[in-house]
Structure formats: structure tokens, C-alpha cells
Specification:
The complex is a heterodimer of chains A (about 250) and B (about 325). With about 250 residues, chain A is α/β, with parallel strands linked by helices. Chain A contains 6 helices and 13 strands. Chain A has a single domain, classed as 3-Layer(aba) Sandwich (Rossmann fold), CATH 3.40.50. Chain A has a 9-stranded mixed β-sheet, with helices on both faces. A two-stranded antiparallel ribbon of chain A has the order 2-3. Chain A is globular, with a radius of gyration of 21 Å. With about 325 residues, chain B is α/β, with parallel strands linked by helices. In chain B, the strands form 3 sheets. In chain B, strands 5-9-4-1-2-3-10 form a 7-stranded parallel β-sheet, with helices on both faces. Chain B has a 5-stranded parallel β-sheet with strand order 13-12-14-15-16. A 3-stranded antiparallel β-sheet of chain B has the order 6-7-8, with no helix packed on it. The chains are: A alpha/beta (about 250), B alpha/beta (about 325).
């Protein structure tokens, strides 16, 4: 079975985000970038399926500027066999990304498509579900466990209040949640080998997709800061404040 | 008020209507005055009856059919797409159900989806968090149909109507599908209020040290009628299950009183609770970041302070 994994280049999860002075967007100038953490989990899951003999080939795809090739190389160092770079702007809307990925799915005909559940920059949590709609495939979002057998995937999903298990026919879309696995680190020889793995490049035109704007970013702002309150000296003082000042307990 | 039609997906479990739905109605009323609530499920007539008693609701659409029993995206999305054809907006809670279904709806309608909106500026302009709530983006939708998930804690609940109820219309649309089958579900059983809807939340962090010690919070939560939450660190350390996690990657809560016990205050945790009305922090480290957002901070050993607090309530 061939697995297609989609990955996104995002601001490194450990870097503090800054907004531009004119509030027109987030300032990413010279910021450290990395593969979105949920996408790393998707890559890891694909590699594990290949190690188990369930997957035969892993194709990794990313949509964005030429710099996303760093993340494609990163995924190939972890075990993906080849890459697809769809050339586009770096802040493409989810629906446009889903349309481009749909075209790649049509081309590659994978048996399973893995994506992170959301990107830590836009926090949209949309592309997997949108791709599933466009490709008319079943979806299992927020996966914490994935098993493949007899043409179906059994997926445990992290849902509000507990866990849900679904059985979905293949091909299918699965989006990864945090506890699905713990991604490995790439080894140096694998990083070297990844440089020689093939990457195909496509434009949206070559994929037959017209990118369309649906949303306009008006401005970005810092969230309102919460003022630090007071330190209380004892439990008794805390109870007194909660009862008589904040009036939140009886 | 504009005549815009707004379609809301009720948040429910076939038996009861979740409070999140009330918050959705007040968000919807900021967009238009013609409000339809879709209750799709199986054996969910009582839910529809509850929904019809919310003030401001024009009608309840009841799709009661086995294909909707588990609200699977593959079944639900085509139904919503059909009902949304004359709507100006479609809203769902930013719950795991809403987040699962609504992007599938939006893509089928060829429109964008806005995630976790916190505020409505006008009928096409919304405020939503990005970068784990560290930035607020004001976004304008250029689409004819606005499709959005709503962070329900950011909107007040709509009241129940003082008299009468909205009409309940049956929806017969149902297409069987076999792409996705429900296998099982496990719910973490608790007598406590639901984390997302509780008036008081008591949360524990890594400072509690073990799953055994985490139970120290129970008497305090019992006294306050509180839900119990946890930081990502406590979940990752295996003290409690993931569905108790408060934070950007877990639940977003905004109770009247939030008590953070042994929680350092990582950005990702603050993103999940900083809109609480009153925040109390109990931590032995006076430099902990949680004190920067706490209304009342107590620098103390939690193993002494928490039982003492429970006893004095």
C-alpha cells in the first residue's frame, strides 16, 4: 500500500510569536521554522506502517514556497521515499491546500492519506476533513491509534469526554493527534541519504487547480493581557477573598 | 437586524442537548434573526424539544435516523450541505464533533471555514485565535455562506424562552453510507460537571507528582461542585486521561472560578483558561508563570494548602 503524507512548514513550536508593527500579520522574518509537530506524528506513523510491512511506499507532499523542500527532506530523512512539492504561497487557505492535495491524491492513488490534525500557526484543523470531502473519502480525525487490516482501517479517535473507535474503508484520510506516537529523530546518515531522494515539483496550474481567495486577513492583535492580581499569605485569606471580594464562593 | 438565515448544528448525545448549543444561539443571533437548529441523531426527539425552547430560535430541524446515530462526518456533512443551501451562515461548536464535520461541509460548499471564532465584528468579519491563542486574527469572509466553528466559552448562553416553543420540523433526508462504521466508544464516567460547562474548575499539574496524588483534588472539587482539569504536563506524565486536559491542545474553558494547583503556567495551558473570570493559583514556586495571570496567588506547598482549603469551605 502506498501512503501519502502531507506536511506543513510552520514557525518552530518553541519560538515566541511576534506580530508586525502595522498589525498586518505575524512577523516571520528570520524566525526559526520547522515541520508542524502534528505532521511529524503523521510521518512517523507512515514510517511505522512501512516497518510493519503494511506500507510499501511513502510519498510526502508539501504546499508552499521553495523553502518547504527543507521539510520534505526532513520527512525523507525519517523514512519517506520521495517528495512532491506543490509551489504556492506560504499562507495558502485550507480549502486551496485541500484542492491541491486532492489533485495529488488523484495522481498518486494512495491507499491511505495521513495528515496532522492541525497546524500550530493557523490552528485551522481543516485540511484533512476538506480533502476527505473533495476526494469523497472517509475520514478519521484526531487519531490516537491506527490499525490496518483487510482493506479497512480501525482508528481510535480522541473525542470530547472519551474515545471513539471507527472502522473506515480504504483509501481514507486519517489526521493525527498527539498521542498517536512519539516521532523519532533523524539519523545523520539518513539525512545524507534523503538529499538524494527524488522530489517532483508541480505548480497549481499543472495540477489543474485555480487558487481562489475566500478570506481576507484584516489585522492581527495581541490578546488582551490579563493583569496579575495579588498574592495571599494563607488559605484563610484566600477563602476570605473568594467569598467577600470576588464573591465566587458561598 | 439582518434577515440572514443561520443554521446551527446542535451539540448533543441523542439524549440531552449540550449547553454549548445555547452559546451557539447567542453567537448566531449576532449574525441574523432567522435561526434554525439542526438536531441530527437517532432517538433524539427530546433533544429537539429542548432546543425548541431556547429564546430566539425560529425552528428546529429534526433529522432522526439511524444513519445519524453517531454523527459521523460522512453521513452528517451531506445533510448539512443540503440544508445550508439557502443559509447565510452555518455554525457549530468547536467541539470534536463540530471540528470533524464542519470543514467537510465547507469544502463541499466550496467555501472557507473559520475555526473557533471568539467574536463577531459584523456579518462577515470574525475574530479567531491563531498560534495557540497568542495572536488574535480579525478575518473577513468573502464567501456567500459563512461557515464557522465557535469557541462557545466566548459567547454567553442564550436564555430559555419564557413561554412557547419554536416549531419542530422533521427532515427526511438520509443517505446510508458504509465508508465509516462506528465500532465503539468509551466515555470517562464522572459524576462531576462537564469540564467545558462547569462553573468551577479545579486543575492539577505536574506539581501533584503522581496519579495517586492527583486524587488530592477530589475533596476540593466535591466541596465546590467543580469539574476537574489538568495541564498537558500532568496528562503526558500519565496522572490523568487526556480528556481532562485544559489548554490549546485540550479543552478551552472559561469558568467563574478556576483553581490551578501545581501548574507552572505554560503558554499552551494559559491559552485554555485565561478567560476564566477569577483565577486562583497555588504553587510553591513564587516565580511560576501562572501567578502572572492569577487574581489570587498562594505560594504554598499544595499538599498542605489543598486539604486545608477543602476543609475551610
Amino acid at each position: 500500500m502506498k501512503i501519502l503524507v502531507a506536511v506543513k512548514r510552520t514557525l518552530d513550536a518553541y519560538v515566541k510569536v511576534r506580530i508586525r508593527q502595522d498589525h498586518s500579520g505575524v512577523d516571520l522574518t528570520s524566525a526559526k521554522m520547522a515541520m508542524n509537530p502534528f505532521c511529524e506524528i503523521a510521518v512517523e506513523e507512515a514510517v511505522r506502517l512501512k516497518e510493519k510491512g503494511i506500507a510499501t511506499e511513502i510519498v510526502v507532499v508539501s504546499v508552499g514556497s521553495d523553502k518547504v523542500q527543507e521539510q520534505l527532506r526532513g520527512a525523507m530523512a525519517l523514512g519517506a521515499d520521495r517528495g512532491i512539492h506543490v509551489q504556492a504561497g506560504d499562507d495558502l487557505e485550507s480549502l486551496n491546500v485541500a484542492k491541491l492535495l486532492k489533485a495529488v491524491v488523484d495522481k498518486e492513488q494512495p491507499g491511505l492519506i495521513l495528515l496532522g490534525k492541525q497546524a500550530i500557526d493557523s490552528d485551522n484543523n481543516q485540511v484533512g476533513q476538506m480533502l476527505a470531502a473533495l476526494a469523497q473519502l472517509p475520514q478519521a480525525t484526531f487519531a490516537s491509534k491506527l490499525e490496518i487490516a483487510e482493506g479497512r482501517a480501525t482508528v481510535s479517535r480522541e473525542v470530547d469526554g472519551g474515545e471513539q473507535v471507527l472502522s473506515i474503508s480504504l483509501p481514507a484520510i486519517v489526521t493525527t493527534d498527539l498521542r498517536l506516537n512519539e516521532p523519532r529523530y533523524a539519523k545523520l546518515p539518513d539525512i545524507m541519504k534523503a538529499k538524494k531522494k527524488p522530489v517532483d515539483i508541480f505548480t497549481p496550474e499543472q495540477l489543474g487547480v485555480t487558487v481562489k481567495q475566500h478570506l481576507k486577513l484584516v489585522e492581527v492583535n495581541d490578546p488582551p493581557a490579563r493583569k496579575a492580581g495579588v498574592k495571599v499569605a494563607s488559605v484563610a485569606e484566600l477563602v476570605d477573598k473568594l467569598r467577600n471580594e470576588a464573591k465566587v464562593i458561598a | 437586524m439582518s434577515p440572514m438565515k443561520v443554521l446551527i448544528l446542535a451539540e448533543h448525545d441523542n439524549a440531552t442537548l449540550k449547553p454549548a448549543t445555547l452559546h451557539l444561539v447567542s453567537a448566531a443571533l449576532q449574525l441574523g434573526s432567522d435561526i434554525s437548529i439542526l438536531v441530527a441523531g437517532q432517538g433524539c426527539a427530546a433533544v429537539a424539544d429542548n432546543a425548541s425552547r431556547i429564546a430566539g430560535v425560529s425552528r428546529v430541524l429534526l433529522a432522526d435516523n439511524a444513519v445519524y446515530q453517531y454523527q459521523l462526518a460522512e453521513a452528517l456533512a451531506p445533510l448539512v450541505v443540503q440544508l445550508a443551501s439557502d443559509a447565510g451562515a452555518v455554525l457549530a461548536a468547536a467541539s470534536t464533533t463540530g471540528k470533524n464535520v464542519l470543514p467537510r461541509v465547507a469544502a463541499a460548499l466550496d467555501v472557507a471555514q473559520l475555526s473557533e471564532i471568539l467574536a463577531i465584528k459584523d456579518a462577515s468579519t470574525f475574530v479567531r485565535p491563531i498560534y495557540a491563542g497568542n495572536v488574535l486574527a480579525t478575518v473577513q469572509s468573502l464567501d456567500a455562506i459563512k461557515v464557522a466553528t465557535v469557541r462557545t466559552s466566548a459567547f454567553l448562553p442564550a436564555p430559555l424562552a419564557t413561554s412557547g416553543q419554536a416549531p419542530i420540523e422533521s427532515v427526511a433526508i438520509a443517505t446510508a453510507q458504509d465508508q465509516s462504521r462506528f465500532v465503539s466508544a468509551s466515555h470517562n464516567v464522572s459524576a462531576r460537571p462537564e469540564l467545558g460547562a462547569a462553573r468551577v474548575v479545579v486543575s492539577g499539574g505536574r506539581g501533584l507528582g503522581s496519579a495517586e496524588n492527583f486524587k488530592l483534588l477530589d475533596p476540593l472539587a466535591d466541596k465546590l461542585g467543580a469539574a476537574i482539569g489538568a495541564s498537558r504536563a500532568a496528562v503526558d506524565a500519565g496522572y490523568v486521561s487526556n480528556d481532562l486536559q485544559v489548554g490549546q491542545t485540550g479543552k478551552i474553558v472559561a469558568p467563574e472560578l478556576y483553581i490551578a494547583v501545581g501548574i507552572s503556567g505554560a503558554i499552551q495551558h494559559l491559552a485554555g483558561m485565561k478567560d476564566s473570570k477569577v483565577i486562583v493559583a497555588i504553587n510553591k514556586d513564587p516565580e511560576a508563570a501562572i501567578f502572572q495571570v492569577a487574581d489570587y496567588g498562594l505560594v504554598a506547598d499544595l499538599f498542605q494548602a489543598v486539604p486545608e482549603l477543602a476543609k475551610s469551605l
